[in-house]
Design a protein that fits this description.
This protein is mainly beta and 280 residues long. It has 1 helix and 21 strands. It is globular and about 50 Å long.
Length: 280
């Protein structure tokens, strides 16, 4: 139920982080150089001696499942975050709500319903937290940011001023509270309809917590799709195991990788590309 980072992005970020550590024995597996003002880190992952990290076989907590009670079943989870006291908040696009669980997994509270009114949701694509326990929910269908606390309930919502291609999808929270968005795809007859495997372009960037002052990183290919256009109309469907553009918040900036090569880029809070991490 946690938002995940693709293996490509996760491996590269891990090795990029290693590149910031002191070189104790000079047996580095990376090379760092400058290219037109951008720091490039090239990693030779094949030279790693250890087996790397592995996911534990015993989860610390399980919520949901086909045999679970209805109130704890989850569908199309859009995000999860842990509160300071150990409680867990989960936002679900499939059930149009936010639920708060105890550290042991018991349901404590449930907020929201399907709709467009105050405190209602259509498509939860991000759930994050501002200190100490204000929850931030991004509704992609409504292009709206909502806030609530487990104690006070729904606090209010603001519309996102979005001027990019496609539609806004919530991705992550940055250090300053800005909301990382992008990746939604839309199609228009003005550009013509294609048939075959396509990767439409979508604008990625972030907005302030009140939904204004959008800063665009630029337009990137989004997810791979199969499209078909004929005299009956146009359809597009997502593809399994396809390349997707993945973004995640970093320290004072954003990491972004399009899946087209083994590379992720880091953009600072001005939107400038300042670092590239590559691997073989």
């Amino acid at each position: 139920m946690n938002r995940s980072v693709t293996p490509t992005l996760g491996i590269l970020l891990a090795v990029a982080a290693c590149a910031d550590q002191p070189d104790a024995d000079s047996a580095r597996i990376w090379t760092e150089f400058d290219s037109a003002g951008v720091t490039v880190v090239e990693n030779r992952v094949g030279e790693l001696d250890d087996a790397g990290w592995a996911v534990g076989t015993r989860p610390e907590l399980v919520i949901g499942g086909l045999e679970a009670p209805e109130e704890t079943q989850l569908f199309q989870v859009g995000g999860a975050t842990r509160l300071a006291d150990g409680r867990l908040a989960v936002g679900s696009a499939g059930t149009h709500d936010v639920r708060v669980f105890s550290p042991e997994g018991a349901l404590l509270a449930r907020f929201g319903a399907e709709g467009d009114g105050p405190g209602e949701f259509r498509d939860v694509t991000l759930l994050g937290r501002y200190e100490p326990d204000t929850l931030v929910i991004f509704d992609a269908s409504a292009s709206r940011i909502s806030h609530l606390t487990p104690q006070q309930g729904f606090l209010g919502s603001v519309a996102v001023e979005w001027g990019g291609n496609g539609y806004a999808v919530g991705r992550d929270l940055l250090d300053d509270g800005s909301i990382l968005i992008g990746g939604g795809m839309s199609f228009s007859s003005s550009g013509g309809f294609s048939t075959g495997v396509i990767r439409p372009r979508s604008t990625f960037g972030w907005v302030d917590r009140d939904g204004t002052n959008m800063l665009a990183l630029g337009d990137f290919t989004a997810a791979g799709m199969f499209a078909r256009a004929d005299n009956r109309g146009f359809m597009a469907r997502s593809l399994p195991f396809t390349a997707v553009t993945t973004t995640t918040a970093g320290r004072d900036g954003v990491w972004l990788g399009t899946g087209e090569r083994w590379e992720v880029g880091f953009h600072n809070m001005d939107g400038t590309l300042v670092r590239l991490a590559r691997t073989d």
